[in-house]
Amino acid sequence: SQTIHQWPATLVQPVGSPLSLECTVEGTSNPNLYWYRQAAGRGLQLLFYSVGIGQISSEVPQNLSASRPQDRQFILSSKKLLLSDSGFYLCAWSSGGRFAYNEQFFGPGTRLTVL
Amino acid sequence: TQLLEQSPQFLSIQEGENLTVYCNSSSVFSSLQWYRQEPGEGPVLLVTVVTGGEVKKLKRLTFQFGDARKDSSLHITAAQPGDTGLYLCAGLTSGTYKYIFGTGTRLKVLA
To answer: What is the pLDDT of residues B48-102, one digit of tens each?
Structure first.
């Protein structure tokens, strides 16, 4: 069965510090990978998605970036955090391809607080 | 910009009552998914609907996809405290890998 891991679970960082959040998927190959951010009690905002190694699509211009160095690894980074970067960050995967029956599955999330 | 509007935004009901949550858009989606999320956790997939007019049942939950694949509804019969959570709909944009999420409905079921 497939599992998705995210770490760290919680993170408190000062403004201006760098960021690296990691997501890995097990039990599948060539997945589509996604990074979302969620404000408290609200819907999810798509930040980045990737359909293959080294392929990154950015949805929201900001000071965040994403990389996919391996098939099942997705990393979210920032060189200098802003207060507005605080939130709940979620990684998700879906089966490769554009089939309508593709389903998206989420990791446990990372709570980021920027002070 | 594609949007998915959910209504109501908040809902507080007594145990045993029925409720319906709506998810509406002006855009057509390849499929639509419903999730439930607990505080501090990732969303958990409840169902995926693909065909216009499709109805799926999951115990006391009934999901319907609109004929034009632009809207969906979630109906809960005889709500229980365990149904409490944030309900999210998400549409898969036609011809892409992108999912658009709804604004969310926070449900509280009182015992």
So the answer is: 999 999 999 999 999 999 999 999 999 999 999 999 999 999 999 888 888 999 9
Encoding tokens for residue B60? 């006391």
Q: Are B91 and B66 in contact (CB under 8 A)?
A: no
Residues of B with CB under 8 A from a CB of A: 4, 6, 30-31, 33, 35, 40-45, 48, 50, 86, 88, 90, 92, 95-104, 106
Q: Please report the DSSP string for A11-72 in residue order.
A: EEE-TT--EEEEEEEES-SS-EEEEEEE-TTS-EEEEEEEEETTEEEESS-SSEEEEEEETT
- Asked if A107 and B96 come within 8 Å (Cβ–Cβ), the reply is no
